[in-house]
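Input/output pair, single chain:
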Amino acid sequence: MKTKAEAFHHTLKDVYYAEKAITQALPKMIDAASDANLKGAFEDHLQETKEHVKLLQKVFASIDKPSEGEKCDAIEGLIKEAEGIIEEASGVALRECLIGAAQAVEHYEIARYGTLREWAKQLKNDRAHDLLSQILDMEKAANAKLTGIAVSGQ
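Output:
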C-alpha cells in the first residue's frame, strides 16, 4: 500500500476481521463470567459488536469495496490471551482478568477506530467519518462500563 486510501482500506479490513472474531470470542467470555454485571456487559457488547459489523459494511460501501476481513494478528493474540485466562483463572482472579482482557480489546479497537475516523475525515469521506465516529463512541462507552465494573468491585 502506498496511499492513505489504501492504508484506510487495509485497516478497515483488519478491524472488520477483528469485529467478526470478537463476535465468536464473546460467548466464551459470557459463559466464563459468573458476575452478573460483567456477564451483562459482555452480552450487551456482543450485540453492539454485531451492530459494528453492519456499520462497517456501510463504510466499505462508502469506498466501493466489498466487505471483507484480513487476518488481524493483534486481535488473534488478544483473544488467545482471554482464552488462556478462562482456562487458568478462577474466582476473583477470573473476574478481574476477564475485565482486563476485555479492556485490552476495547483499547485496541479505540485506537483503530480513532485512526480510521481521522483518515476518513482527511479523505473527505463524511459518511465513513460519521459511521466510524458512531462505532468509536460505542467502544469508548463499553470501555467505560468495564472500568465502572472493575472499580465497583462487584
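The helical segments are 4-32, 36-62, 73-88, 91-122, 126-152. The mean pLDDT is 96.
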